[in-house]
Amino acid sequence: MAYKAKFKVWRGDAESGELHDFLVEVNEGEVVLDIIHRLQATQAPDLAVRWNCKAGKCGSCSAEVNGRPRLLCMTRMSTFTEDETVTVTPMRTFPVIRDLVTDVSFNYTKAREIPSFTPPADLAPGDYRMQQVDVERSQEFRKCIECFLCQNTCHVVRDHEDNKESFSGPRFLMRVAELEMHPLDTADRVPAAQEANGLGLCNITKCCTEVCPEHIKITDNALIPMKERVADRKYDPIVWLGNKLFRRTTKN
Ligand code: SF4
Ligand code: SF4
Ligand code: FES
Predict the structure, then answer these.
(1) What's the gap in Å between 152 CA and the centre of ligand 1?
(2) Tens digits of per-residue pLDDT, 142-183?
(3) Helices (DSSP H) in the chain: which residue ranges?
């Protein structure tokens, strides 16, 4: 059944902005992105929003709904009561370009800082068969749609702009973990994870995991295992020596 919903939508640019009030029609089965599109069609034709797939797969429509990091296309209007005011704001951690669109280039910078997959130089195609357990482990991480909601949520950068230089954020620490756990990757990623990527700043609050629309267990399956590897390397001389001598055969 259609009804009129109260919406507050942040409008502005890098200089300034404020919440604008709207009363807008909502129909059964709609998501927040439908309502933003209706606002564009009827009341605010120049309202800026980034989106592509409307299916939770492109990672473009990330924003905050009632203060919670969400994909606008996957947030059903039925999760709100009809008399509730729905507030839509841009992701807080990244600079605003206009309205709901933020500049997420911080993430691309961090992605470029991670050395790419480095298989043994002498390995010919077909020489190696991956164990199923290794395939499944990296498949979980590769479900990432790069929505950057985890990056937006992590308090290390959300509340501390000056940490952006030294912290890659959960999405890219997860990428480091994926490569570190790959049986054919020969790069030693443990020291860089702790130092260049700022793993030590993560205090495993799991906020990143809670907002991930792909339900990737970022903290449990990527960040904590990486922290364990850092600790092993630092405090266990036998593990350290073993890693040095048998690195590719013991990597797991
Ligand atoms: S678990 Fe670590 S990376 Fe994830 S939100 Fe918390 S501090 Fe950030
Ligand atoms: S890990 Fe999850 S929350 Fe983070 S960018 Fe990927 S899909 Fe988005
Ligand atoms: S529009 Fe693609 S994830 Fe929302």
Answers:
(1) 10
(2) 999 999 999 999 999 999 999 999 999 999 999 999 999 999
(3) 32-42, 105-112, 132-141, 149-153, 155-158, 170-180, 190-194, 207-211, 224-235, 237-250
pLDDT tens profile 55-69 = 999 999 999 999 999
CATH superfamily ID and name for 105-251: Alpha-helical ferredoxin (1.10.1060.10)
Superfamily of domain 3-102: Beta-grasp domain (3.10.20.30)
Atom of ligand 2 nearest to the CA of 151: 4
Q: Under a CB-based contact definition with an 8 Å cutoff, are residues 50 and 100 in contact?
A: yes
Q: Atom 8 of ligand 2 has which residue's CA nearest to it?
A: 147
pTM above 0.90, yes or no: yes
Nearest ligand to residue 59 Cα: 3
Q: 174 C-alpha vs ligand 2 centroid, how far in Å?
A: 9
